[in-house]
Amino acid sequence: MERAGVTSLIGTVALWLLMVSPGLSAETFQVAVMDQQAVIAQSKAGKRALEELKAYSMTRQKIINADDQELKELQQAIQDEKSTDSVKQEKQGQFQAKLEAYQRRLTDFNREIQQKQREMVAEYSKKVQAAAQAVGEKNGYVAVIDKGSEAAIKIVLYHQPALDVTDQVVKEFDRQNK
To answer: Structural domains in the chain?
Structure first.
């Protein structure tokens, strides 16, 4: 999302908050912030999900590494081969076929891993939202805003440390997702 889009989104959210809570004075208007990535990284269920994704990736990586080694050995055999041109051509044909299969598998594995990541993000975003909502309702917050991160879009540029409810959301997330 472009910076102008983010600014517009933040302005829209602020306007919406003012419209839905016209009876609230500035003193009772409570907003909290949290770090959604930290909730996933620090919670028990989030850690399990990240470990499962890592294990899934590692099994795929082992297959790719074995294919890579096989290609290197075949290439070395072609270079070391002191046989006729027809035998070398046959081995080069085998190498080319294996290389194409390797590249297809690599592309497929990357697509699978990205799909799993997207599914995990979608699933856990809903779960984090539910935990944040529970914390927000319990503590009387009108909104709990994800701080964002340097890697993505940093949504909250400044907040007082006391407004950060990440630890509470982690505890609630763990309670809801045993």
So the answer is: 3-176 (3.30.910.20)
